[in-house]
Specification:
This protein is an all-alpha fold. It is built from 4 helices and no strands. It has one domain. Helix 2 runs antiparallel to helix 3. The chain starts with a helix and ends with a helix.
Length: 75
């Protein structure tokens, strides 16, 4: 279970649109200490995904929809 403050931050972050959630994720990853280049790889991936959302190449879905699908697939 996540600490209460973390839950509040998470819930607030979910209110952002997809592009801004991607930007937030990139900033959070950037704040972590580097780990054998993984941070750079995550930055590249997050930037790519945020750009795909921004340009409309992909369409996001509400997290509730994703969680429901996963719960059905992995009961």
């Amino acid at each position: 279970m996540m600490p209460e403050l973390l839950e509040q931050v998470y819930d607030s972050a979910l209110q952002l649109n997809e592009a801004n959630r991607g930007k937030l994720a990139a900033r959070l990853i950037e704040s972590l200490p580097e780990d054998d280049g993984l941070r750079e790889e995550w930055k590249i991936e997050i930037t790519r995904r945020a750009e795909e959302l921004r340009t409309g190449k992909v369409v996001g879905m509400p997290v509730e929809t994703l969680v429901n699908r996963l719960r059905k697939q992995y009961p």
